Amino acid sequence: MRVTMIGSGYVGLVSGACFADFGHAVTCVDTDSAKIEALNSGAIPIFEPGLDSLVAKNMREGRLSFTTELAGAVRTADAVFIAVGTPARRGDGHADLSYVYQAARDIVAELDGFTVVATKSTVPVGTGDEVERIMREARPEADFAVVSNPEFLREGAAISDFKRPDRIVIGTGDDRAKRVMEDVYRPLYLNAPPLLFTSRRTSELIKYAANAYLATKITFINEIADLCEAVGANVQEVARGIGLDNRIGSKFLHAGPGYGGSCFPKDTLALMKTAQDLAAPLRIVETVVSVNDNRKRAMARKVIAACGGAVRGKRIAVLGLAFKPNTDDMREAPSIAIVTALLDAGASVVAHDPESMAAARAVLPGIAYADDAYSCLDGADALVIVTEWDAFRALDLDRVKAGLREPVVIDLRNIYRSDDMRRRGFRYSNVGNA
Questions:
Q1: pTM for the whole thing?
Q2: What does the alpha-carbon distance between residue 221 and residue 219 come to, in Å, rounded to a whole number?
């Protein structure tokens, strides 16, 4: 089949490369000419494990191409996917749908024959209705169907998620569109992925509800971690104890500095605002958003407390800046609030991250950056682990202790064992373990 992706950001690029790897002919369209030029020269604008080789392979074999020219790509397509950004709108927190609606206008102008237009961007309930209205108003005679097909990709594991999905949600009431979408995902049938066909509005809400629920699990275990510290319990054992219940499950029960990234912060906020506007407030989601915002700054207070109650004039080493490992994404990363609070308290900060330092420099210009973990901590008064990169899980602890002025380690991801760290002479603090 011929597939066109409108947008070559994270979702568009990963989805386009995976569709091409299925054997479809895929064209990724973007208005950013510099990005398209870079992609055509083999440069990948984001870090996602395995994506560079997947893109190169499918470009080499002629199944994947990149262009700024939308017209030809849309006219020949069986399915056009809208995969543009929907950031939180400044001022009110609602999703900014201007890119989605502009894509709809651009697409409908070039349609030739029956085409499925599938929204893969994360959008509030009712967006598909507005996309269809815009398109039919522009060209009443055009033959198309607007479908909701949300993505469920985890940064750092996106290719695996796309090729071995838990579910594929498709919102449409059009039989022709259903057949096209079945053909698009037919290469996955050997793995028997569950295709869930539902209404368009239900599909849109599934995406938001899923992200809100996962964000709630993270926030719940973070609050339980605070209680564990107060009563002398171990949050990791609590998480294991409740996670073994298959009604709950163990995923997203890892206490830490709060959630960040490109999805959870903006999606929980957008869902909360939509619900408030419809007089159906989601009090749990409202609390999750508030608690998570406060938690990031609270982690800085935890660092300050571990340093004796003050950090003015002290040098703090920070390992990990991206919101999670295996990505260079700094959007809403907990490190931003933590580092900013430490700077406000008078500390100097030096940081290292395996992939995100280029992006970090734009949002954290007032700190120093180190080329590796050991040069980062050398001469520091304390070490703070913010992101659980594999490279930080087995540090040479003798070397760590020798490099630090004081043997203070604040592990916000619980990647080391308290008893082992204290036995080695560290003043060790983690999350949810008194």
A1: 0.93
A2: 6
